[in-house]
Design brief:
single chain, mainly alpha, CNT_N_dom, transport, CNT_C_dom
Length: 403
């Protein structure tokens, strides 16, 4: 049943992307089919095959080990507040957000040493040859898995202005589909299974390429003479570690401020909607509106009809606000859902596809390539839709593998 439902979900998501295509005759079906096969193969390996599941657990344990190392630094600054089992209990900013500082510092060191670029070049180059996608968009798709949509485009900065329209759209979609590796620790601290987060993050690379090439297939001549930027802005490893820590702390502050503001705004909106609903004897809320609007998509990707409205409300929060808010609200409610629905939601929410990401890409990519700012604004909504469909595709494929 899960297999048939998942196949139906995959076909449904691909059909929506096909209907949105700017040039259906130009679609390279070899790219689409190989990317889909890659998705399903990886999903089978890590979700169904015992050795693959063990490998994914090993990777998750490794990430958890890094989180534990981060707590040593936090403990020096915050003392016993780092102990979630202590009298203070779980403090979100301490346990969930501050580990980002250490992870960001570690990534900066790996980038300074050139390890990150070499790893991404190998994986991205293999992906380009396998799928037939350009080197620039393939490298960016892999880089985005680790660095996110704000830093990944920097590595291909010299080429952004001369990318084809299809390549540039793919860059945008990759940014919407993936999440930065540094924030996965924050999601995991909210109770979201780290194994599923890692699987969703990795699957974002081929799924973003697949959906982007369905919606805006390549029709121009591609320049594959692309190399990742190796320019170093840090004086040495210590400088890189310090810069990474500083940027990580800025991210922590931004996320904390955003969560406080948006969760309070949601409460305000729910209060107003509740007041309006009381006039008509209806329990009206933002979650209810999101739930009913998006429940057909939740059912499509494998959520049972009985859980669809409540599950879709979290997908709506991710789309309208961001994935941090959605995961923060989902964590306490995971016990109310079946294991399959929890897994599907983890995959469906794991991405930056939301309306505020359009502004982020305008600010970042638009600054790196000013000549493409207008194009970012024009394609922004389509990129959000494409990124959401890519996340849905990941969720549907994962649902197929549920035992």
């Amino acid at each position: 049943m899960n297999l048939l439902w998942g196949i139906g979900g995959v076909i449904g998501v691909l059909a929506i992307a096909f209907l949105l295509s700017s040039n259906r005759k130009a679609i390279n079906w070899r790219t689409i089919l190989i990317a889909l096969a890659l998705q399903m193969t990886f999903s089978f390996i890590v979700l169904r095959w015992d050795a693959g599941k063990a490998g994914l657990k090993f990777a998750a344990d490794g990430v958890q080990g890094l989180i534990n190392f981060s707590y040593e630094g936090i403990k020096f600054v915050a003392g016993d507040l780092v102990n979630a089992k202590g009298p203070w209990g779980f403090i979100f900013v301490i346990q969930a957000l501050l580990p980002i500082v250490f992870i960001s510092s570690l990534v900066a060191i790996l980038y300074y040493l050139g390890i990150m670029q070499k790893f991404v070049s190998i994986i991205g180059g293999a992906l380009s040859k396998l799928l037939g996608t350009s080197k620039a968009e393939s490298l960016n798709a892999v880089t985005t898995v680790f660095l996110g949509q704000t830093e990944a485009p920097i590595l291909i900065k010299p080429y952004l202005a001369r990318l084809t329209n299809s390549e540039f759209f793919t860059i945008m979609v990759s940014g919407m589909t993936a999440v930065a590796g540094s924030v996965l620790v924050g999601y995991a601290a909210m109770g979201i299974p780290l194994e599923h987060l890692l699987a969703a993050a990795i699957m974002a690379a081929p799924s973003s390429l697949l959906i982007a090439k369905l919606i805006m297939p390549e029709t121009e001549q591609v320049d594959n003479n692309v190399e990742l930027s190796t320019e170093r802005e840090d004086a040495n490893v210590i400088d890189a570690a310090a810069r990474g820590a500083s940027e990580g702390m800025q991210l922590v502050i931004n996320v904390a401020a955003m969560l406080m503001a948006f969760i309070a705004l949601i409460a305000l909106l729910n209060g107003l909607l509740g007041l309006i609903g009381s006039w008509f004897d209806i329990k009206l809320s933002l979650d209810l509106i999101f739930g009913y609007l998006l429940s057909p998509f939740a059912i499509l990707i494998g959520v049972s009809p009985g859980e669809a409205v409540q599950a879709a409300s979290f997908i709506g929060q991710k789309l309208a606000i961001n994935e941090f808010v959605a995961y923060a609200n989902l964590g306490p409610h995971m016990a109310e859902f079946s294991a399959k629905t929890n897994m599907i939601l983890t995959f469906a929410i794991c991405g930056f596809a939301n309306f505020s990401s359009i502004a982020i890409q305008l600010g970042v990519t638009g600054t790196l390539a000013p000549s493409r700012r207008k194009q970012i604004a024009q394609l922004g909504i389509k990129a959000v839709i494409a990124g959401t469909l890519a996340n849905f595709l990941n969720a549907a494929v994962a649902g197929m593998m549920f035992l």
